[in-house]
C-alpha cells in the first residue's frame, strides 16, 4: 500500500484530461482502507475516491489523497429463500461489464441489459446505473461500504439505498462518508429477459423469446453503434442526465415539439431524452478545439486529444445554457465533476 506523490491521473479516467494527485494510493485489500484513511487524517489530507474513472471529470490537480479502489473478487451462493435465485457478490474494483459477462456465462441471469456500461462495480450503485429497460436497483440486494465517520463496515439493503433515477443515498446523505467495498445482486437461474426498450424492440430478431445471450449481444451491438470507445477517443459516456419534468411542463413542451421523446416514470413526472434536446439545439458533432460533442450521440462529450477538464466544462455549460434557452429545461451532469463547480453547471 505505497503512496505515490504528484501522481498522474490522466490514464485513470476515461476522459483522459490532464490532472495530478498530490498523493495517490491504490487499495487492493479491504484492511488497507482504514489504514490509509488514518494516515490521511494524521497528515490533515482531504480524500477523493477513484474507481474506474469512467464517470469523472477532473477540472484541476487533486489536493490531498486519491484512493484508487482496486478491490477484486466475485463470490456466489444459493439464495436460501429461493432455489431459483443466486446471490452474486462482487468487489468494488471489479470491471462492471466483465461482471455482467461472467454472470451470463455461469447461467446467472438479470444483468444482460446493463452490458458494456463502463466503470467499476463500486461506482454502479452511486448513480443507480441503468440501460435498456433495467436499472441496477432492480437487481441489487445490498451494498457493503466503509463508513468514514463510524470507522465501521456497514451493509445497506436495496431499499435503504434510496435509489432513484441516477441517484442514491451515496450521492446524497452518504456522499462524503461512504466508500463502497462490494455489491451483492440477486440473479435468476431461469431466463427472464426484459425486452421493452424501443431500441431493443427494433433490433433484428427481437421479441419476448430472446435469450439472455441474445439480449447481451444486442445491447453490446447497439451501444457500440452509438457510443465511442473510451480506448479510442476520450469520453465518460452520457455526460448529462435525462431531465425529469412535471406532467404540465411536458404537456406544454409537447404542444410545441410533438416528436419529443419522453418516458413515463414511477410518478406523474415525465423523463425527457436529453440527447434529443441537445441534438435539436444543434450541438451534435460540434467541436470546440480539442473537445466536442460526439457525431453519433449528442449526450457524449469527447476529448479528441489534448483537451482539458475546464474546456469540457465550458462546453457542457454552453450546451446546458443553449438547451435551457430553447426549451426552458436545465440539463444536469451525470458525471461527477471534481471539484464541483460553484453554483452547479
From TrEMBL:
GO molecular function: FAD binding; UDP-N-acetylmuramate dehydrogenase activity
Known pathway: Cell wall biogenesis; peptidoglycan biosynthesis
PROSITE patterns recorded: FAD_PCMH
Gene Ontology cellular-component annotations: cytosol
Enzyme Commission code: 1.3.1.98
InterPro entries xref list: FAD-bd_PCMH (IPR016166), FAD-bd_PCMH-like_sf (IPR036318), FAD-bd_PCMH_sub1 (IPR016167), FAD-bd_PCMH_sub2 (IPR016169), MurB (IPR003170), MurB_C (IPR011601), MurB_C_sf (IPR036635), Oxid_FAD_bind_N (IPR006094)
Catalytic activity: UDP-N-acetyl-alpha-D-muramate + NADP(+) = UDP-N-acetyl-3-O-(1-carboxyvinyl)-alpha-D-glucosamine + NADPH + H(+)
Keywords linked to the UniProt accession: Cell cycle, Cell division, Cell shape, Cell wall biogenesis/degradation, Cytoplasm, FAD, Flavoprotein, NADP, Oxidoreductase, Peptidoglycan synthesis
Primary localization: cytoplasm
Cofactor(s) named in the record: FAD
Location(s), subcellular: Cytoplasm
SUPFAM superfamilies: FAD-binding/transporter-associated domain-like (SSF56176), Uridine diphospho-N-Acetylenolpyruvylglucosamine reductase, MurB, C-terminal domain (SSF56194)
Keyword Flavoprotein carried by entry: yes
Domain FAD-binding PCMH-type: start-end pairs: 16-190
GO BP terms: cell division; cell wall organization; peptidoglycan biosynthetic process; regulation of cell shape
Gene3D superfamilies: 3.30.465.10, UDP-N-acetylenolpyruvoylglucosamine reductase, C-terminal domain, Uridine Diphospho-n-acetylenolpyruvylglucosamine Reductase, domain 2
Function of the molecule: Cell wall formation.
Stored HAMAP family: MurB (MF_00037)
Record's protein name: UDP-N-acetylmuramate dehydrogenase
Organism, as annotated: marine sediment metagenome
Lineage: unclassified sequences, metagenomes, ecological metagenomes
Amino acid at each position: 500500500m505505497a503512496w505515490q506523490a504528484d501522481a498522474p491521473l490522466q490514464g485513470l479516467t476515461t476522459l483522459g484530461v490532464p490532472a495530478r494527485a498530490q498523493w495517490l494510493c491504490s487499495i487492493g485489500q479491504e484492511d488497507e482502507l482504514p489504514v490509509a484513511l488514518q494516515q490521511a487524517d494524521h497528515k490533515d489530507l482531504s480524500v477523493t475516491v477513484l474507481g474506474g474513472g469512467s464517470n469523472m471529470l477532473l477540472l484541476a490537480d487533486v489536493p490531498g489523497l486519491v484512493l484508487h479502489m482496486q478491490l477484486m473478487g466475485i463470490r456466489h451462493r444459493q439464495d436460501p429463500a429461493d432455489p431459483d435465485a443466486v446471490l452474486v457478490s462482487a468487489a468494488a474494483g471489479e470491471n462492471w461489464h466483465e461482471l455482467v459477462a461472467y454472470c451470463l456465462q455461469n447461467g446467472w441471469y438479470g444483468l444482460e441489459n446493463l452490458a458494456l456500461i463502463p466503470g467499476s462495480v463500486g461506482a454502479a450503485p452511486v448513480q443507480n446505473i441503468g440501460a435498456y429497460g433495467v436499472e441496477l436497483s432492480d437487481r441489487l440486494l445490498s451494498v457493503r461500504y466503509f463508513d468514514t465517520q463510524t470507522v465501521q463496515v456497514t451493509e445497506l439493503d436495496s431499499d435503504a439505498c434510496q435509489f432513484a433515477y441516477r441517484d442514491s443515498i451515496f450521492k446524497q446523505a452518504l456522499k462524503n462518508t461512504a466508500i463502497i467495498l462490494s455489491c451483492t445482486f440477486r440473479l435468476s437461474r431461469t431466463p427472464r429477459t426484459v425486452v421493452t426498450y424501443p431500441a431493443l424492440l427494433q433490433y433484428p430478431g427481437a421479441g419476448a423469446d430472446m435469450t439472455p445471450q441474445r439480449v447481451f449481444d444486442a445491447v453490446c451491438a447497439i451501444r457500440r453503434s452509438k457510443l465511442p470507445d473510451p480506448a479510442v477517443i476520450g469520453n465518460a459516456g452520457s455526460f448529462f442526465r435525462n431531465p425529469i419534468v412535471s406532467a404540465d411542463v411536458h404537456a406544454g413542451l409537447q404542444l410545441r415539439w410533438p416528436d419529443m421523446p419522453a418516458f413515463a416514470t414511477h410518478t406523474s413526472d415525465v423523463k425527457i431524452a436529453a440527447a434529443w434536446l441537445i441534438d435539436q439545439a444543434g450541438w451534435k458533432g460540434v467541436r470546440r478545439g480539442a473537445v466536442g460533442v460526439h457525431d453519433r450521440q449528442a449526450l457524449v462529450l469527447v476529448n479528441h486529444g489534448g483537451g482539458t477538464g475546464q474546456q469540457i466544462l465550458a462546453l457542457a455549460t454552453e450546451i446546458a445554457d443553449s438547451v435551457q434557452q430553447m426549451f426552458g429545461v436545465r440539463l444536469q451532469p451525470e458525471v461527477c465533476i471534481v471539484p464541483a463547480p460553484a453554483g452547479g453547471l
